[in-house]
Input
Amino acid sequence: PQRDELARLAPRERRDWVQRNKSEALASRPPMQREEEEAKHDEYGAVPAYLMERKRQWAAAEAARRSAMPDPSCPPGTRLMPEDERLATLADLEESEQALRQMLMKIPLSATTPSMLKRRELLDQKLKKVEDAKIMFSRKRVYVAEDC
Output
């Protein structure tokens, strides 16, 4: 161009360079990756059944190991009394307490003979033992001596 001539520039183009780069990048990927994506099956990413089974086996083995371990809060030479046995014993103690109270009520208050006094004292002692046993068996956990 000469000094007095104006330089003519080509008209500007409207191009979306981001979209163009994106499409070029997708087209330039190796064909192997595209085949791998298409080859994914319905269960892709799911945990296999044999691993789930193995996990259940491990959990069962751990539960068996823990149940075989002795209770750390159990004193030596004792065992934890089963719940049904504890409740049955508690019911028996309540029945014997009622029977002892009825027998105690039959003794007259003004009893002065040595045999009546001795009988009343004996019934009071038995009643005290039954009440103490009821308190003990009312707890959640009861430990009893192991059978040899």
Remarks:
- The two ends are 119 Å apart (CA to CA).
- Helices lie at 17-27, 31-38, 49-68, 83-106, 114-137.
